[in-house]
Design brief:
Chain lengths: 246, 359
Amino acid sequence: MMEKVYSRPAGIFEGAVTGFCPGCMHSSVCKIICEVLDELGQLDNACYVQGVGCCGLAVTYFDMDTVAAPHGRACAIASSFKRCSPETLVFTYQGDGDLAAIGLAETMSAANRGENFTVIFVNNGIYGMTGGQMAPTTLLGAKTTTTPFGRDEREHGAPMHMCELLNQLDAPAYIARVTAADVPNAKKARAAVKKAFQYQLEGKGFSFVEFVSNCPTNWGMSPLESLDHVHNVILKEFPLGEFRAK
Amino acid sequence: MAEKIFMKGCEAVAETAVRAGCRFFAGYPITPQNDVPEYFARRMPEVNGVFIQGESEVASSNMAYGAAAAGVRSMTSSSSCGISLKSEAISWMAGANLPVVIANFQRGGPGIGTIQPAQQDYLQATHASGNGGFRMLVLSPMNLQEAVDMTWQAFELADKYSKPVMLLMDGFTGTMMEPVELPEPLSEEEVAAIRASKTWAARGKHGGPQHKVMCGPGLDTRISQEQMNERDAELYESWKTTEVEYEDYMTGDAEIVLTAYGITGRIAKSAVKLLRAEGIRAGLIRPKKVYPFPDAAYEKLPLEKLRGIVSAEMSIPAQFAEDVERVVHGRTRIVTALSSGGEVLDRAAILDAARSLMK
C-alpha cells in the first residue's frame, strides 16, 4: 500500500485549472494560503476580497466565499465586511498595482484604522494582467512597456516599499515580507501567513504579508531565470523579514 | 398615529434608515449632506451598527458594497461630484447584485459647482450612474415626509431586487426642517431575520455545497456576462410596469400641465392653484420615481388638446425635460422653467411659462 504524502490542499477547487502563467509564484502563494487555512481549521470560515489584476485569477483556485473588489478597493471592502461579519476570517488578495498605486489610500487608511483583517500582497514589480506596465514597485532601470527606456527616478520616482511605509503607522499589528522563491523561504512564508491569520483570529488588528514574487512572462525570463532574478536583484531592493509583530 | 417630530432632512433620512434596519453607513464629508454621516456617527453605536468615515467617496461607497456583501442593510450618501466618485462602486453593486441605498443631496455642477441646491444630476442618476449600462430605481421626494417614506421604501426595494437604489434629493430637502412622522423601528429580531434571509451573503462556506461569489459579470465563472445582462435587462423592463410612481394632481380638466420632480415638483404644485385662481386650468404630473420614468402619466393626458406642458427643474441645460419630450414626442408644446447655480427655482418663472402657453 502506497502512502499518500502530498496532495492538492483542501480549499483549492478539485480539478482547478490555473489561470496563472507557467512558473508564476501566485500558484504557490494560493497553495500556502489554503494549507494554512486548513491547518487553522478556518477554510470553511474564510472569505477573501479579490483584487483586480492577476490576483483576480485566484477566483479559479479558492473554493471559498469571494467578494470581488474594484481595482484598488479591496482594503475598503474588507474593512466594512469584517466589521459587519467579525466572526469570519477575512483576507484580501492583491497585487502591487492594485494595492500600492490605485489602492494606496485604501491600503494605508485601513492599516491606520487597525482593521482586523489580513492582507496578502503579491509584489512582482509589474502590472502582469495588462501586459507588463510599470508598477509602483518596479525597480529603477527596469524596462517595462511604459518605461521603455528603463524606470528613471527623476521621471517615475523610486520603487515604493509597502512594508516600510506601513511600518510608519501605529496601528498595524503584523507586517512581514516573505518570498516563495525557494523551499526554505516558502516555509518561512507559510509561518508568516499563519501568524498573520492567527493575529486576526486573536483580534489583534491589521496584518500584512508581502510576497516578493516573480513574473516570468512580463519580465521576459524563464521561470528559473526569474527566480534567480528574485534572489540576485529583487531581494536586494526588498529585504525579507518581519517588520512588526505586536 | 405616531408623534410628529421637527427634523432636518439629512437627519430624517438617516434616522429612518436606522429604523429600516440599516446597520452600516460609510460616508465622506461634502456639503450639503454632512449631517448624514454626523448623524450616523452618533446613532449607529446605539443599535450595534457600524459607521465608518471613509478616506474618500470612492472608499466609502466600496465599504457600503462590502457591508452589503455581508448581508447587512447598507447605505452611503454624498452630493453630486461626490456621487461621481461613488459611481465606481454603484456600478459594481449593480453588477454583483448587492442591495445598497445611495442618497444624493444634489448641489450645483458640473465639476465642483456650488454647494447650493440644484437638480443637475438627473441624467447621471436616471441614465448612467456608472459604467456598464445598468439601471437603478431612483426615488425623489418633494418634502421631508416623502423623504422619510421613500428612505424606508428604498431599503425594501434594494432588498427586493438585490440592486442599488438611489434617493435623489437636493440641498433644500437635505437641509430644511419640517415636521415628519417617523416609522416604527424594526426590532433587532426583524433586522437579524432580514440579514439571515440573505442566504446569498458571504460569511464562509460553513459546510455549504458551494461557495458564494459577489462579483460582476465577467468574473463569475458560473454565468456568462451576456446571460447576466439579459436577466438584468428583463428586470429593468419589468420595472416600467411594476415600479412606476407619480402624483397626478388636477390634470382631469387641465389645459396646461406642469411637470417637475423633487423640490421643484413641490413648487410647481403650489403654482397649480395660483394659475387656477387666474382662470388657467392647470394640473401637475410629478414623478415620485424618476427611474423608471412614468411614461404612462403623460400618455394618458389628452396631449393634442393641451395648450402645452411646462417642464420645470433646477438644471441648466434642461435634463428632466428630455424625458418629458421623449414621451410627448411633439404632440403638444413644451416650455421649460429652469434655474441653476444654487438659486431656488422662482415660482414666478413657472407661472410666467404657463401664462406664455395661453397666448
